[in-house]
Specification:
This protein is mainly α. It contains 6 helices and no strands. The longest helix is centred in the last third of the chain and has 21 residues.
């Protein structure tokens, strides 16, 4: 099992263990990929486009090319670059290969300090779970 698969498994366990009880009791099952899609549409589609191909309405205003997120797996030798994408979205670590931070432009959406109603460790877990949902969606839309 490579490091990407290990990270996916760990994050899946984190998300599963912190799904709110009410979502477990709801009539409709919790869908990680659908939640990730909702987050993508709310936070990423203005630049990356609804299709994630880099053709969002704000993409023309950027000084860099907006990447086609449906080709991440193809561009990475057939493997979804889970860790690299996670670090890019998370924004807590500088990803040296990507140069200066151009994103996240969504402000505090993926920062634990935003979740003021939750204690520190739990807030951090919720943030990581939200990013994981987004990455699961991106992984699901990869072109072969």
């Amino acid at each position: 099992m490579n490091i990407t698969q290990k990270i996916k498994h760990i994050l899946l366990l984190i998300v599963i263990s912190y799904i709110p009880l009410q979502s477990c009791l709801a009539e409709e099952p919790y869908d990680t990929i659908e939640e990730g899609k909702r987050q993508f549409m709310d936070n990423c589609s203005l630049c990356h486009g609804n299709s994630a191909k880099g053709d969002g309405v704000f993409s023309k205003l950027l000084t860099i090319d907006t990447p086609d997120l449906t080709l991440l797996k193809t561009d990475n030798g057939g493997h979804f670059p889970f860790k690299e994408v996670y670090l890019m979205v998370d924004g807590r670590e500088e990803v040296l290969l990507h140069g200066p931070r151009y994103m996240p432009i969504w402000g505090d959406r993926f920062k634990s300090s935003t979740w003021i109603s939750v204690s520190g460790d739990h807030a951090d877990t919720l943030v990581r779970g939200s990013i994981f949902e987004l990455l699961m969606y991106l992984d699901s839309i990869q072109q072969n």
